[in-house]
Amino acid sequence: PEPHDGKDVGTVFIGVASALGVSSFEYSFDGDRQSIREQACDAALARLLAALGDLGYRS
Fold first, then answer.
1. Measured on CA atoms in the order 5, 6, 9, 14, is the torsion positive or negative?
2. Nearest partner of 44 among 18, 16, 11, judged by Cα
3. pTM above 0.85, yes or no
4. Which residues, listed in sequence order, are joined to residue 25 by a DSSP beta bridge?
5. CA distance 43 to 26
6. How far apart are CA 58 and CA 49, in angstroms?
7. Where are the beta strands (DSSP E) in the chain?
8. Splitting the chain (59 residues) into consecutive groups of 10 residues, what average pLDDT does each group show?
């Protein structure tokens, strides 16, 4: 991968929208393309679980 639009390789943005509002998060992951994808998925799922918890959902 190459830097894109001035952002380093591994830069990932995750957005969450719920009844409580909208939030965005910037991450900087290391590794190859597959590793960055896996880290991004893990972070997105963690943010989703946190948002559901904020809304009162419990696992």
1. negative
2. 16
3. no
4. 14
5. 10
6. 9
7. 11-18, 21-28
8. 81 94 97 96 97 86
